[in-house]
Amino acid sequence: MRIHDRILLRLAARNQKKGNAKRALYWYEKLGERRMEPLAVVQYAALLHGLGHTVRGLQALGRLLSEQPIAAAYERRARIYHEIDRPEEALADLNEAIRLDPAPYAYWYIRAVVLADMGQEEAAARDLNQALRRADRNAAGTVHYELGNIYFRMQRYEQAIASYRVAVADQDRVVPLQRFRLGEALEAAGRIRESLAEVRLAAEQQTRLHAQPDQGLIYYRRRTGYSLEGVRNALSQVDGEYGFRQKQSRLHERLGEKDAAMAAVEQGLAQYPDAEELLNRKGGLLRDAGHTDEALAQFDLVIARYPNRLPAYMEKCAIYRKQESWPQALAILEQAGERFPDNTVVRFWHIDVLRDAGHPEEAWRGSRRLTELEPEDPLNWKQQAELAIDTSRFDQAEEAYTKALELDRNSDFYMRRSFSRYMADRYEEAMLDIQAAVEADASLAEESRTAFAMGEIYLGMDNKALAEEEFGRAIRLEPDNALLYERRARCRLAMEKLEEARDDCDAGLALDARQPRMLRLRGIVHYRMGDYEAALSDCRSYAAAQPGDAEGEFNLGAVLARLDRNDEAIEAYSRSLALSPFEAQTYLERASLFYHRLFDRTRAADDLAQWLLYAGGERSESDRLALLHELDGFDDELRELAKTHYLNQYGVGAPRYLN
């Protein structure tokens, strides 16, 4: 090379090193590509690419490689291909560069980056380990950092932690982003306190860098050796994490440190005052701390600043839903719907709130519209199915769940369709759905809810023996669930296994002594066993716990009658009728006491007339009166008296108004 050419090349290289790209290009082009040495062509191509002349840079490298295979030229072209999203061509060039010269660590390192971007993490990890064998001390930290990133993506968190720790151990080259990634890996490994220590330190260091005029650009470039574009990408990641303050806040929250969580958010907002995510997070922390009004005001502030962003609307709605303030929840969703008319999430929430607010028909219409707009989302069909179940439209619930299952063979969908079919008395099909659910998720076979559902289906099929067996299996899987004992007790009561039913009631009440349904059931079991004193104790306890339950008072009356405490029994029946005045059997039982125990024929006849009114249903008057003659335990004279009372009060031609 002539002396003049060497001078031009030196001027180009010096300006390129100093970052004077345009001046460097001037000298390169004054020299001319034909007079450049091969490595100078490589640098020239890199400069062209950096200045936006990518095609010219690739052409220069192509001409060079057509004349002679040079590893550095392949590596440079691979970098360009990678940056313009042509990974297959980048990988091919890197393979050739390594074949020609496997010594430079950078070739292995760049190929690992390309492989990782192509989703080939295992191969990328192998290449990075090869790069480590070749890298000097200054480069090793960067390689360890990238290896940590690969292990993290592979969810091999302990290996990621080990690699990150090596990267951050070099105090002369570590940057806050690398320490933050170590914190992320520690969090993923469940080591929250250690994670917080690293993230907090990274955030403090980054805050100091953020205060510099270049916000740490030169600092990152000197320490990492990244290109200018690489440093800008790293700082973009820092900004995306809001100087790591958002992660710091979440870690404090996970540790129960609410005040520290809020302080970290405030520190983040000091650097990023318009960060929507931090503003929303502040609102969420205020909400969780019980400062509801302040949280609502915070979300109003976010909506005012970012009216075309959805999260704050939904956060505000969530507060109203938790408060069961349905009008306000609906109002904010309608506001969001006006702003985001095509957003199906807003529609989905609106339907849910209508359901919770007690507007089933509006919710149903909204659901039908949503499934028309977005029929490919199985959750929309699930929502529609649950709305149908709410209103006992089990055929429509089955149809909606069938649509959901066409899109997603979800075990929960099978279980809920099974319930819909069970409620429609289609027990065999309900059982087939449970079997399909278990096929979709084998773990369901070991869950008590599956055995419980099978027990209910067998009861519906009147197979009490198999129902008892399934309820027993559910109890073995979940022995602390009182409801399961109640269901088996009812099954055993129907099978006349009275002692076993009583034992189940005892077991359920031992788990939850405040469970009134179990008390009522045990009272019935004791009654059927003839243990009336025990039955009386249970019935009194139930009636005290549920004073507004007519059935509880009826049961109490039945037990008292068995104990010949007739006045108390009549009082109990009367309380039952005051709560539910249309129960024919209660009038009949009280009539029997009036007649047989108190010898009060008039009141007995009145009660029989009431019994006749409610027991007759839709029968004609003659058929209704015939029921009196089918009654045992009453004499003919009382039957005639009851008939007279009935005809005078309720028969055809009886007066309807008082004169």
TrEMBL record:
Keyword ATP-binding: no
InterPro entries: TPR-like_helical_dom_sf (IPR011990), TPR_rpt (IPR019734), Ycf3 (IPR050498)
Annotated SMART domains: TPR (SM00028)
Residue stretches of each TPR repeat: 71-104, 141-174, 378-411, 448-481, 550-583
Keywords recorded for this protein, A-Z: Repeat, TPR repeat
Pfam annotation, one family: TPR_15
PANTHER family found in the cross-reference section: TETRATRICOPEPTIDE REPEAT PROTEIN 6, UDP-N-ACETYLGLUCOSAMINE--PEPTIDE N-ACETYLGLUCOSAMINYLTRANSFERASE SPINDLY-RELATED
UniProt-recorded name of the protein: Tetratricopeptide repeat protein
Protein source organism: Cohnella nanjingensis
